[in-house]
Amino acid sequence: MSQGYRSIGRASRGPVVIEDIAIDAGVDPPIEAFLVGRERADGGAGPAVLAWHWFDTASDDSDRTQFVDEAVELAHRGVTTLLPQGRFPWSSPPTGSSADRAAIEAEVGRIHAGIALLGALPTVDSTRLALVGHDFGGMFAAVAAPDVAGLRALVLIAATPRWGDWFLPFWPIPDDRIDYLRALRPLDPIERVAALGDARVLFQFGRRDFFIAPMTGLEFKGAAPDGAELLPYDDEHAMRDPQIRADRVAFLLRALDLEAEPAVSSA
Fold first, then answer.
1. 49: closest CA among 263, 255, 259?
2. Which domain does 110 fall in, by range?
3. Comparing 264 with 237, which gets the higher pLDDT?
4. Residue 266 lies in a domain
5. What does the pLDDT look like over 86-133, one tens digit per residue?
6. Is residue 261 part of a domain?
7. Cβ neighbours of residue 183 under 8 Å, at least 6 residues apart?
8. What are phi and psi of 260, to 5 degrees?
9. Which among 142, 121, 119 has a CA at the least distance from the CA of 132?
10. Measured between alpha carbons, how far is 222 from 87 in angstroms, rounded to an integer?
11. How many structural domains does the chain have?
């Protein structure tokens, strides 16, 4: 056990270590995650990112592997990244407002447990943190973000403003539609982004997204604090255009005060 987690295995990409860990945060089962980073030559502490993956049953990266390559890229710039495995609705479906509220709150609790772990690492500056999430991962990140001390940035990728936007069309929810939307409203991402304070915000959306209307990004931006950025792309819901990742990394480096630091060689 180290810093609140158990190490299960590790792999290296040059100087960057990808550690497979289990976080024992009082939840059952423990949180599976990858912890990606490298030793700092100055022995000091740098910023950290927690990235939560998307949901797509037909995709092979609908899990904690989604942001591994991006985390390795950030590690070369001195950023430590935690990539937890989501559970709801990846492992269990939505079934109704009462159960779904509890499941959302539990998933948000897992994000906070991950942030607490990052903040306790000696290589992490707990005043320079960022949250990134795609699809459901972005929605959970938005709900969790206002309660994260030291949050510098939030990036939402192809997310929807309300849980009912996904759950009602795609799962057999027995609740009355209006009652369901009302019950989950306090936990809707659109309700939470307004409480982000001084954190910088980036919304990334695809113009050809079958699931999310292009105006969704404008709705999010209108609810967020002044200065939030909205970047649309000619892409679908998977958001795989390399420019999307490049823009996101550049945004994170600026928000985490790393824009002036040169990339570290992978040799």
1. 255
2. 5-255
3. 237
4. no
5. 999 999 999 999 999 999 999 999 999 999 999 999 999 999 999 999
6. no
7. 97, 98, 101, 175
8. -90, -5
9. 142
10. 30
11. 1
15 is a domain residue: yes
Sheet holding 151-157, edge to edge: 5-13, 16-23, 31-37, 80-84, 46-52, 124-134, 151-157, 200-206, 229-233
Q: Are 121 and 224 contacting, i.e. CB atoms less than 8 angstroms apart?
A: no
* CATH number for the domain that contains residue 150: 3.40.50.1820
pLDDT above 70 (res 262): no
B/e letters for 154-181, b = 16+ CB within 10 Å, e = fewer, are: bbbbbbbbbbbbbbbeeeebebeeeebb
How far apart are the C-alpha atoms of 190 and 161, rounded to whole Å? 5
Of 160, 154, 162, the closest CA to residue 228 belongs to 154
Cα 155 to Cα 142: distance, rounded to the nearest angstrom: 9
What type of residue is 144?
Answer: A
DSSP state of 146: G
Q: In the numeric block, which tokens belong to residue 21?
A: 């860990």
Strand spans (E) along 16-150: 16-23, 31-37, 46-52, 80-84, 124-134
> Is residue 82 situated within a structural domain?
yes
